[in-house]
Amino acid sequence: MKVLVIGTGAREHAIVHALTRDPTVEAVVAAPGNPGIDQVALCRDLPGGITDGAAIADLAEELGADLVVVGPEAPLVAGVADVVRERGIACFGPSAEAARLEGSKAFAKEVMAAAGVPTAMAHVCSAVDEVAAAIDGFGAPYVVKDDGLAAGKGVVVTDDRAAALQHAQDCLDKPGGQVLVEEFLDGPEVSLFCLCDGTTVVPLAPAQDFKRVGDGDSGPNTGGMGAYSPLAWAPTGLVDEVLARVAQPTIDEMARRGTPFVGVLYVGLALTARGLRVVEFNARFGDPETQVVLARLDAPLGALLRAAAIGQLDEQPVLRWRDEHAVTVVIASEGYPAAPVTGGPISGVEEVGTGPEAYVLHAGTRLDDEGLLVSAGGRVLSVVALGADLAQARKRAYAAVDRIDLPGSHHRTDIALAAQRGEVVV
């Protein structure tokens, strides 16, 4: 099987890394990829960008690809998967209509209500006075979400009423801008990826990510600063409960609407004092959780994704998982998330090696005119490590981080620390 992976980030690098371990996959091509992916797979340019569905379909035909895997959310919402499928090529990723589960938080709430999925109470607002009334009704902490795509940074959770209103105004100023004001959900958050073929749902292993930029969950939200899996503290039966109460009802509702969901339904959960609640849906693998979940997957990823793409997930064997714990730590550019500084030289990546204990996945990197590795985005690298327990995985991850130099860069030092200490309470 030949697989074409669309995207440029560490999530796509993790997918490519896992695909190369699948004996049923004979070749992996990434478009446009990144310098790290280029070391393990062929990379091809996409002059029209990752939302150019026709060009992606043309490339898939040229390569004779048996499967196209669309990594990021923007091309999915733009309908790239639809164009690829229209050419008769299997595609792992939802249609534009089904991707509205991520593209519009208001639509996701509508589907959850129809499917009876437990989630936070919310008001959809299109004017700032509506937002003010809603946040005053819920009280602090205030939760204000951009209705559309915002690269993981569209949510503000704050006790500062003025900051909440300012974020709402910034979102409303966009064309067609809407925001959701939600009740604050207490309790630890969990990410669960569910592979879907329109009918059948196969859950992967839960993970937890760290969205705030600083230690102790301080500072603004980011696209994610690290993650770990498995979650030893998670309640017994959590995955089965999410499957029964959230994922399967949602997939059934999407099918009932005539817009079957094929791809990854990312379920973001809060385990509250009143039980589990859905914080958000995404329509693709999450970054950085993908890095740790796929590090532990001991099943052929290519076969699994193709089965989802062609409606045969129910024929797949039970998934196998490695016993080790996995931790990923994100190295971010100076100034991230507000104003990332790019172009800085990166050194030490080759010192980490390629595993199996620790390895580096590229996110925002490029080669300069002299062929040297430099930063090209806010989140630059994901360092992944495996260990017999969280303590060993953390030790290996941070030892690898210490070998890498990017002037002005920063990272969190407390990824998975509370879980290692047994301090996560449900």
TrEMBL record:
Its EC number is 6.3.4.13. One of its GO terms (biological process) is 'de novo' IMP biosynthetic process. InterPro entries: ATP-grasp (IPR011761), ATP_grasp_subdomain_1 (IPR013815), PreATP-grasp_dom_sf (IPR016185), PRibGlycinamid_synth_ATP-grasp (IPR020561), PRibGlycinamide_synth (IPR000115), PRibGlycinamide_synth_C-dom (IPR020560), PRibGlycinamide_synth_C_sf (IPR037123), PRibGlycinamide_synth_CS (IPR020559). It comes from the Bacteria. Keywords: ATP-binding, Ligase, Nucleotide-binding, Purine biosynthesis. Pathway: Purine metabolism; IMP biosynthesis via de novo pathway; N(1)-(5-phospho-D-ribosyl)glycinamide from 5-phospho-alpha-D-ribose 1-diphosphate: step 2/2. It catalyses: 5-phospho-beta-D-ribosylamine + glycine + ATP = N(1)-(5-phospho-beta-D-ribosyl)glycinamide + ADP + phosphate + H(+). Belongs to the GARS family. PANTHER family: PHOSPHORIBOSYLAMINE--GLYCINE LIGASE (PTHR43472), PHOSPHORIBOSYLAMINE--GLYCINE LIGASE, CHLOROPLASTIC (PTHR43472:SF1). This is Phosphoribosylamine--glycine ligase. The lineage of its organism: Bacteria, Bacillati, Actinomycetota, Actinomycetes, Micrococcales.
